[in-house]
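Exercise 7.
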Amino acid sequence: MASRGHFSSRLGFILAAAGSAVGLGNIWGFPTKVAENGGAAFILMYLGMAFLLAYPVLMAELIIGRAKRANMIDALKSISGNVFGTITGSVGAITVVLILAFYAIVAGWMMSYLVDAFLSILTVDVPWLIESSTPRNLVFMAVFLIFTSVVVTGGVSAGIERWSVRLMPTLFLLIIALIIYVSTQDGAIDGWKALLVPDISRVFSPTLMLDAMGQAFFSMSLGVGTMLVYGSYIQKQENLPKLGASVALVDIGVAILAGMLIIPAMYVALHNGVSILDEGGNLISGPTLIFQVLPSLFDSIGYVGTIVASAFFLLMVIAALTSSISMLEVPVAFLVDNKGVARKKATLILTAVVFAASATIVLNFNALFGVVITVTTEYSQPLLGLILCIFAGWIWNRNEILEELKHGDEHADKTLFWKIWPWYVKIFCPAFIAINFYFSVF
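Solution. The predicted structure, written as tokens, is:
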């Protein structure tokens, strides 16, 4: 088992796992949901849902991973003892490949805007970089996948951990520096009010609760095996509940920091004459926010705006990369564990597979891009999270789970975590995920 590699330090794991959870969705999805759902009222509900729903599922993945010391397919097969585990793990691996396929395209856009912003500092203008085109999308998607594969090829400690402990602190420094800068601009105070002043009437709104539940679940990269695989690289003496809580807190912290950056920036843009509302009167979010509203804001600032734009898109590329390396690791771990393929060869094979899937989406963009996102994130991911709860709560022997927890804490059976979590993940989490899935779909 030693040949599988492991995280050499607690901090290395926390930063790698938090990096997996911290992605583009945190930075462009969370802030606008905050603004649309009552400001601080949404934040409070999100905090509650993060620990009521996402943390227990995160712990299920980490415990399964470390106990079985295997990829998602082999780990779930070991627990179920039949084809159900193999099918579930396989669906998870396929889902994560498809997520990475569309994610690499979006991350490629971030890279192209980063290059454009950097060239703008040098007063070099290359319009091709920010004009949507098939060649641009293919080129930068491929470049991003190359960066991802280089990190994963290095293995757990020399690749994933080594880069995570560099990229995550850089991400924090960039986002804090940008918050400070944006907060000094005219109009920022209105954004801070939208962020921090709670609309109490919205606290128990069904829409707010569902949005908070979905954001908490998806923001922690759950359901597709990334945390399970990372869990398989944790050393036995580590206290898993504490490690999981640390990952959840870092992820929540980045999401809130993103809100502290994006929402004031949107109101600064409004003050500078940039529209921040769509045709329906809602705050603009997603790609339109990142690739139209904020670039317009940077342009309105002048030369300093090009420097700010460079920092912002570097932040976005780092957030994308820390997530993509964990996604690629899921199928790579299967080839290494199950098929005995050398890590470098496995990484190259899976990178080629993801590139082929991404290229297919790029060449059939209008027909496939939205469909792939919907199928993977709105259907497959929550259902996989639900099934993981069933594995941890109903199929796996409780005594085995307790023995695994005792490796890191010999008194685990006397902790509050053990008194609550087994029943919670067995009944409460599946019910909540099922309700959220029903309302999000129907």
